[in-house]
């Protein structure tokens, strides 16, 4: 029988970058090579034991075995609101301004379904986390990439976005602390962003998935800016904060209409996250500092060490003060993909080509420090031996 046709939207997406990199890693492993992968932002550190112990009990409670309450249990949403009050000094209505997510990725990808129409433009950071483009493409929207330059600390220069682009745009994605660059944003920057979005009637979706992986002062929230709630929503995740990527829990908070619109989309698509995971999320938020501080410190040490080694090996490194990503250019420059494949061939270290995050990532390589310390040290030693 002739193959049945697939939907045309399937062709909108290039092969998922991380899948392809992982395929290459597996090929090398099959050849018997000891590959160190620093390609994926998925912490090697296990979820802290008290969290897993709490969850083991929550899993056994029969009340948790039925469908969850789609938008998140009232208790989880209240815990989120209480956490923000303590962490950022902001007041949120847990009933209307908080929505639980099955990890922040799905929320980020679904949001455009709720906020844009066919033909509307959405401004996305370049380089940027690929799922910002997902919902835009599936909604038949248009992507407008705003380049992030090192000279600007990888913050967008709003003044460079043309009037024509602004006229057709409905939404702007931001992401601080930033993947892939490791850059962070100040409250002053958020003030500027909120002013810009209010003036140009843009929804602002700020992705704070790495909000707790900071090495200096705690990162601010865009919702601390007066008037932000008129235009902004902010996405949070348990994934990196508590090394819980596999558990799939996050939330979005901010403008009630946008939160409710996304709730409506999700009510028609999924049935929410397992109640036992939500209960565990409450436990995490209530013991936040105790659980997250050691993880933060572990990444800080890795970051300091690895950045220093790369600099010594002649790499141009943007030394980050947040996240666990090192964003760097090889000593002699060149294309991202060439550097990545050369490292894989010569040192059996796998990193991510910056070009995979958008055209402005070309020339950079992203290292995710998500391997045990000894492996990261070994990776640095091997990379230093390459004669670029
Ligand atoms: N946002 C950014 C910038 C990320 O890098 C990631 C994951 O790598 C996510 C969001 C999604 O995290 P999760 O879906 O695990 O909450």
Polypeptide structure, described:
By secondary structure, this protein is of the alpha/beta class. It has two domains: 8-47 and 290-384, Aspartate Aminotransferase, domain 1 (Alpha-Beta Complex); 49-287, Type I PLP-dependent aspartate aminotransferase-like (Major domain) (Aspartate Aminotransferase, domain 2, 3-Layer(aba) Sandwich). 39% of the residues lie in helices and 15% in strands. The protein contains twelve helices and 13 strands. The protein has a seven-stranded mixed sheet, with helices on both faces. A four-stranded antiparallel sheet has the order 9-10-13-12, covered by helices on one side. Helix 2 (49-60) packs antiparallel against helix 9, helix 3 (74-88) runs parallel beside helix 9 and helix 4 (104-115) packs parallel to helix 5 (131-138). The longest helix has 25 residues, at 288-312. It is globular, with a radius of gyration of 21 Å. Pyridoxal-5'-phosphate is lined by residues 41, 103-105, 129, 175, 179, 207, 209, 237, 239, 245, 250.
How would you sum up this structure in a few lines?
It is built from twelve helices and 13 strands.
Quote the beta fraction: 5-15%
In percent, how helical is the residue content?
Answer: 25-40%
Helix/strand order: HEHHEHEHEHEHEEEHHHEEHEEEH
Q: Give the termini separation.
A: 52 Å
- Do you know the CATH architecture of the largest domain? 3-Layer(aba) Sandwich
Backbone structural class? alpha/beta
């Amino acid at each position: 029988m002739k193959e049945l046709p697939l939907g045309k939207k399937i062709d909108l997406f290039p092969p998922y970058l991380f899948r392809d990199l992982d395929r290459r890693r597996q090929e090398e492993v099959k050849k018997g090579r000891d590959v160190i992968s620093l390609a994926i932002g998925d912490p090697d550190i296990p979820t802290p034991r008290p969290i897993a112990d709490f969850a083991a009990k929550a899993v056994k409670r029969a009340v948790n075995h039925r469908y969850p309450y789609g938008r998140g249990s009232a208790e989880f949403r209240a815990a989120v609101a209480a956490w923000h009050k303590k962490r950022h000094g902001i007041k949120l209505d847990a009933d209307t301004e908080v929505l639980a997510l099955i990890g922040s990725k799905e929320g980020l990808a679904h949001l455009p379904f709720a906020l844009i129409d066919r033909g509307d433009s959405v401004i996305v950071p370049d380089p940027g986390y690929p799922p910002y483009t997902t919902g835009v493409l599936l909604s038949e929207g248009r992507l407008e990439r705003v380049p992030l330059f090192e000279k600007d600390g990888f913050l967008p220069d709003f003044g460079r976005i043309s009037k024509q682009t602004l006229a057709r745009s409905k939404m702007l994605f931001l992401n601080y602390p930033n993947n892939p660059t490791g850059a962070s944003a100040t409250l002053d920057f958020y003030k500027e962003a909120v002013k810009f979005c209010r003036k140009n009637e843009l929804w602002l979706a700020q992705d704070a998935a790495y909000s707790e992986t900071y090495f200096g002062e705690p990162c601010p929230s865009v919702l601390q800016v007066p008037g932000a709630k008129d235009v902004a929503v902010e996405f949070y995740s348990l994934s990196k904060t508590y090394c819980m990527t596999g558990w799939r829990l996050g939330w979005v908070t901010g403008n009630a209409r946008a939160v409710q619109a996304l709730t409506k989309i999700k009510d028609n698509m999924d049935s929410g996250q397992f109640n036992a995971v939500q209960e565990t999320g409450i436990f995490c938020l209530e013991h936040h500092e105790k659980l997250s501080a050691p993880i933060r410190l572990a990444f800080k040490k890795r970051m300091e060490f690895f950045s220093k080694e790369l600099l010594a090996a002649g790499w141009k490194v943007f030394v980050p003060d947040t996240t666990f990503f090192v964003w760097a250019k090889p000593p002699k420059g060149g294309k991202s993909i060439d550097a990545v494949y050369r490292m894989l061939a010569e040192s059996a270290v796998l990193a991510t080509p910056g070009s995979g995050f958008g055209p402005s990532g070309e020339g950079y390589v992203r290292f995710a420090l998500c391997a045990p310390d000894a492996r990261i040290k070994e990776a640095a030693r091997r990379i230093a031996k390459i004669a670029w």
